[in-house]
Structure formats: structure tokens, C-alpha cells
Design brief:
This protein is an alpha+beta fold. 35% of the residues lie in helices and 24% in strands. It starts with a helix and ends in a 20-residue tail after the last helix. The structure holds one RNA strand.
Length: 495
RNA sequence: GAGCCGGUAGCUCAGUCGGUAGAGCAUCGCCCUUUUAAGGCGAGGGCCCUGGGUUCGAGUCCCAGCCGGCUCACCA
């Protein structure tokens, strides 16, 4: 007989036995009086004698993740969230029915216990159980106790098993939730209004990306899952909201990698009357204070690199960074032949036919980005690669824009917004021309957005932060799949 | 989309030169009232990812495919 089938049959037999004995194998409400984490925090340091004297009563519930039987007694380790506590079940101390339950317990079952805290001979904090309540029967066996579940495919497909077998995974998602909650309160405290804008767009906009298409039957129209909330949030600034933010999913129909999931969580926020310099200060304060609040430090380790989030962070202009890293004279950036020569000398493969700004940007990405391990604001991007950003008054070839890099990765992208409706229309039309020429990622003209801008948008600064990548950094995870509960995979073959 | 690596019991993994499918944990039976990878004795459990091919004989060699990981490309 198939082994899984056999273990499952065994457990169904035990379930039926419990039922015949009057024990509900899938019970109802149970009054949990204590959390394991709290008990350990309160009493984890107390000595054997101290505990004997205090006789602390407690009631916990959890899943059995280890079971060591000794004839008429057993040790069962219960897992409550990411925390574990040993319980000691002794038939002497239990009712007849509880003894019967004890004999039927399997790894994975849920039970509730009441008893007294004590320390065993080996000094382990343990509950001596006086009351045992069966809560829920597991029909499938848990992964092996020592190595746990390591097969990454199973970990992602059956995250529930991953969370059971690898409690530290639990902690990653707790941290994720806390970071997002902290971002929310940081922004709300500063007068931002949290809003929700459409996820289904008639015209996908606000980013350069391929959208997912879906269809609305009653309206008989195609809709696109949003690639960015940007254009809707700016409509709200036009409408008079001074500070808005949204934390929600974006969808991009592109490749999957350790830093790309088709749906990913994005924070975007917009501040009327502000410019990108204000956002530099805000970003520094937000990320360093959240690290301090959630991790208890602003110095973090990411994959072996120590990263110091203590402000202020380095400000480095795009051109200056490029020239300093590679020992180039800034004057050559305008000269195609010299840039190509530099690329060759630096062994960066570039397309000699490409526009100059593209070649310069390839050089930047190849040579500068990997060096940006410590938090760095790269500022003043060229106009050609910043179609939505406001020009700098002092140099119209540059924009009021920054990207924040940490650990060699782009974490945030922000700029003073373009609020000139006529300029925006021109840029849309240029994009549309590129689209007609075959660039399917180029922006489409959003007439309603242009209409909104024509009603007048105040000077505004806006920023986007990729939340998943931020969480990777804060939890020291190498892959985005490790910070998304259910990452996208090919569907499992049904057997 | 391309390259490299992997897929064997519920889990973690061995499997030599092509010659009867293995271990530990888990499961089942017996013993055991302070163990913690508990222990002792015994037992059961396999679509070796799928489909072809070579061969007297394939987990092993060859081809195609499926699924996953990593790297690269696009992107955040």
C-alpha cells in the first residue's frame, strides 16, 4: 500500500476511535488563556525551585510538533505561532478519557492543555498537563523532524507545511506585516491619507511594463490589471488631497526571478507643494526609523554585507557617480566616441547604434549600481530616461529625480512630478509614436489623466517603494519568493 | 526566452562499472511515568518525474517532454 495512504488510514482509524469514545476530533471553541511567547517571556528565566513555589497555572493550545512516548506518559512539544513549549502528559494526572486521547495523539494534531509550569530534570520549561482537550486531527504526516522541509518547490506550493516545519519562516511574515503597519502609521502621522484606487484599468499607465488583460462581461470591455497606481493618485492631488498614499498590488506580465513576482506590493505616495529633496529627507527618516522600531537597530546584515541605515545617507548625482567610479572626465559624457571608448576600456558591452543616453545608462547600471551597497540617493537623472519627472530649473537636461539604492538594488524611485499638461501631452504623444513603431511597452495616451492635469495639479513630489524588496532587505532573504506567502509558480500537475 | 543543475518511500538523502530498491526520521506491533534528533526489539511501505529508445537486462546510458532552482535577458 502507498505509504502516505497507509499513514492517512492509520490516522483516520484513530479519529474514528476518538469519535466512538465520545471525543469530537474536530472540536469547537477553546478558551486559550496564554500564548507560548508570552509565557516564555514571563517565566522563561525562572529557576526550578522558583516555579515549584509559584505553581503557575496556564492554558495553551497548539500543534504537536514533537512527541516522545514513555509508556504511560509522554512529552509533546506544542507549536503556537513561531514558538514552542514542551508539555508533559502523565496518565496519573489525567482523566480516563484524556488518557485515551493521549494514546491516540499524532504529530500534527492540535490540542489544548491546562496545567502547571515546571522544569524537568534536564531543566526544560514544561507544562505538567492536568487537562487535555483534543482540538483537531491531522491526517497527513509532518515533514521529518531534524531536516524539516527543505524542498523549495514544496515550500512555496504548500506554504502551510513550510510554516509548520520551519517556524523561522513564520517570523519573516510577522516582520513583513509589522514593517507595512509601521509604514502606514509613519505616513498617517504625517498627514497622509490612505486611499484605494482601481486595480482594473481601461488604460494601463504610470509605468513602462506589459500588463495582464482581463475582460468584463457585462460592460463587454477589456480591462488591464494595473501596472502602477501613479496616474490615479495624481488625479487625487488634482482633486485637492494634499498627501495621499496607497499600499497595494501591481501586476506586470513579465519574467519571474529572485527579484520579480508577477504581482508585487508597491507603496506610492504623493506630497503636494513638495519636491524631490523633501522626499529624500522623508525616505531617510521613514526607513531608518522603521528599522529601528521593528529590528531594534539601523545596522542590518544583508546576505553577508553590513548595511548602515543611520542617516544621513549618501547623495550622489548620476553623472558624478558615473565619472567618479570609473575615473572619467565629466566632459566626455556628451561625446559619443569617447563614451564608446570608455565602455570598451571598462569592458561593458553596449550597442554602438543605441542613443547616447542609453549607452551612458548601460555604463551606469553595469559599473555604478553594484557599488551602491550602502544606502545611496542617486540624483539628477537625465531627462531622456525620466519622462514623468520635472526638469531642473538650473539644468533642463536633468530632472528633479532620485533613485534610492541599497545592497546594489533599486529600492525607491521618486521625482518632482511633471504637472504641465501640455508638456505631458507631448510626452504621451512621443510614447504613442514609439508604440506605433513597435515598442509595446511604451505608454498609452490617457486622455482623462490629461484632462485632470488641465484642471491644474499643484507642484507635487511622488515616490514609489517596492515593498517586497524592502522586506527582503529587512529579513535578510535572498529571493522575493521568501517574502511573498504564495509566490507565483506553474500550476501543479494533477495526478 | 537561453544556459547550467536537480527530481529515488510521507520527509531528508545514498544508490559503485548497466545486474534482485537502500538508510535515518515518520508509520505499525511489543517494552518503557522526566525525554528532548529519547531508547530497545520486530514489521510494513516504491509509477526511481513522464514518454520513447539502446540492451538479455535501465534508478543508472541516449532522446524528447514536465516541474523546480540558479545565472543571464526585461523589469521594480
Amino acid at each position: 500500500m502507498d505509504e502516505l495512504h497507509e499513514q492517512r488510514q492509520q490516522r483516520i482509524k484513530k479519529l474514528e476511535y476518538l469519535r466512538r469514545a465520545g471525543v469530537q476530533p474536530y472540536g469547537g471553541r477553546f478558551e486559550v488563556k496564554d500564548r507560548v511567547s508570552h509565557l516564555v517571556q514571563l517565566h522563561g528565566q525562572k529557576s526550578k525551585e522558583h516555579l515549584e513555589q509559584e505553581r503557575i497555572s496556564c492554558t495553551i493550545a497548539g500543534r504537536i510538533v514533537a512527541l516522545r512516548r514513555f509508556g504511560k506518559a509522554c512529552f509533546a512539544v506544542l507549536q503556537d505561532g513561531a514558538d514552542r513549549l514542551q508539555t508533559y502528559l502523565k496518565k496519573d494526572l489525567l482523566t480516563e478519557q484524556a488518557s485515551l486521547i493521549m494514546d491516540q495523539l499524532d504529530l500534527g494534531d492540535w490540542i489544548g492543555v491546562s496545567g502547571i509550569l515546571f522544569r524537568t530534570k534536564t531543566n526544560e520549561l514544561t507544562i505538567e498537563v492536568h487537562r487535555l482537550t483534543f482540538l483537531s486531527k491531522a491526517l497527513r504526516p509532518l515533514p521529518e523532524k531534524w531536516h524539516g522541509l527543505t524542498d523549495v518547490e514544496t515550500r512555496y506550493r504548500q506554504r502551510y507545511v513550510d510554516l509548520i516545519a520551519n517556524p523561522h519562516i513564520h517570523q519573516i511574515f510577522v516582520t513583513r506585516s509589522r514593517v507595512i503597519a509601521a509604514i502606514r502609521s509613519f505616513l498617517v502621522e504625517r498627514g497622509f491619507l490612505e486611499v484605494e484606487t482601481p486595480m482594473m484599468h481601461p488604460i494601463p499607465g504610470g509605468a513602462t511594463a506589459k500588463p495582464f488583460v482581463t475582460h468584463h462581461n457585462a460592460l463587454n470591455i477589456d480591462l488591464y490589471l494595473r501596472i502602477a497606481p501613479e496616474l490615479y493618485l495624481k488625479r487625487l492631488i488634482v482633486g485637492g488631497f494634499r498627501r495621499v498614499f496607497e499600499i497595494n498590488r501591481n501586476f506586470r506580465n513579465e519574467g519571474i526571478s529572485t527579484i520579480h513576482n508577477p504581482e508585487f506590493t508597491m507603496l506610492e505616495f504623493y506630497v503636494a507643494y513638495a519636491d524631490y529633496q523633501d522626499l529624500i529627507a522623508l525616505t531617510e527618516e521613514m526607513l531608518s526609523s522603521i528599522a529601528q522600531a521593528i529590528l531594534g537597530t539601523s545596522i542590518i546584515n544583508y546576505q553577508g554585507t553590513t548595511i548602515d541605515l543611520t542617516p544621513p545617507w549618501r547623495r550622489w548625482s548620476y553623472r558624478q557617480a558615473l565619472c567618479e567610479v570609473n575615473g572619467l572626465d565629466p566632459s566626455i559624457l556628451q561625446n559619443r566616441a569617447e563614451v564608446l571608448a570608455a565602455a570598451q576600456r571598462l569592458k561593458v558591452p553596449v550597442d554602438p547604434q543605441a542613443p547616447l543616453f542609453k549607452i551612458v545608462n548601460d555604463l551606469f547600471e553595469e559599473t555604478v549600481e553594484p557599488n551602491l551597497q550602502q544606502p545611496t540617493f542617486i540624483t539628477d537623472y537625465p531627462i531622456e530616461i525620466s519622462p514623468l519627472a520635472r526638469r531642473k530649473d538650473a539644468d533642463p537636461s536633468l530632472t528633479e529625480r532620485f533613485e534610492l539604492y541599497i545592497a546594489g538594488r533599486e529600492i525607491a524611485n521618486a521625482f518632482s512630478e511633471l504637472n504641465d499638461p501640455l508638456d505631458q501631452r507631448e510626452r504621451f504623444e512621443q510614447q504613442a509614436a514609439q508604440r506605433n513603431a513597435g515598442d509595446e511597452d511604451a505608454h498609452r495616451i490617457d486622455e482623462d489623466f490629461l484632462r485632470a492635469l488641465e484642471f491644474g495639479m499643484p507642484p507635487t513630489a511622488g515616490e514609489g517603494i517596492g515593498i517586497d524588496r524592502l522586506i527582503m532587505l529587512f529579513t535578510n532573504q535572498p529571493s522575493i519568493r521568501d517574502v511573498v506567502l504564495f509566490p507565483q509558480l506553474r500550476p501543479e500537475k494533477q495526478s
